[in-house]
Sequence to fold (228 residues):
Amino acid sequence: LAKTTQPISMDSYEGQEVNITCSHNNIATNDYITWYQQFPSQGPRFIIQGYKTKVTNEVASLFIPADRKSSTLSLPRVSLSDTAVYYCLVVGSGAGSYQLTFGKGTKLSVIP
Amino acid sequence: EPEVTQTPSHQVTQMGQEVILRCVPISNHLYFYWYRQILGQKVEFLVSFYNNEISEKSEIFDDQFSVERPDGSNFTLKIRSTKLEDSAMYFCASSQGLAGGRGWKFFGPGTRLTVL
Fold:
């Protein structure tokens, strides 16, 4: 599975839009890009998944350029409750896809 | 919204004792998983379970660990003889499938295991 690289931490003020970029240079044709959120002492929570272009749901948007070597999670107008660790994962559909491989993620701190 | 549940929320045990962590996956899900997270470290995959057998396991999942789906709703993780280094949050997860939208994994709230 492709290795992902994302910033270790980010700070943002309340009400701002936050964009977290993840690079995954070795992404394979059948791989999806998936983002999870984790609050302290809680399990990871699925946020969004995409294959290419743009995906939007009630929580976030995911932008994936044509080469798919990177992706950007966009959180509109963050609030204090969005303070969490955000993980970018590449998920395959073939062998080895049973497991999710979490990195250290991006620790987002939202400041009042 | 359906959710994965786990019991107990916190388990304290003595080194060398057996523990069983319990999970109730989402009812129409077919794939079940255990992950763990040692305090301050990454979430690590332990094992996946499908069609009543282990489909994949990590190096962490050695002979001290076992999983079982004793009935149609529960999924358990047993640690036979706990060690101090087994202290961690243990998360159960489930998914409908493996790929695309069916591959979304839903995690439970976790069981904090403390080995003394």
Observations:
- Residues 88 and 98 of chain B are 26 Å apart (CA to CA).
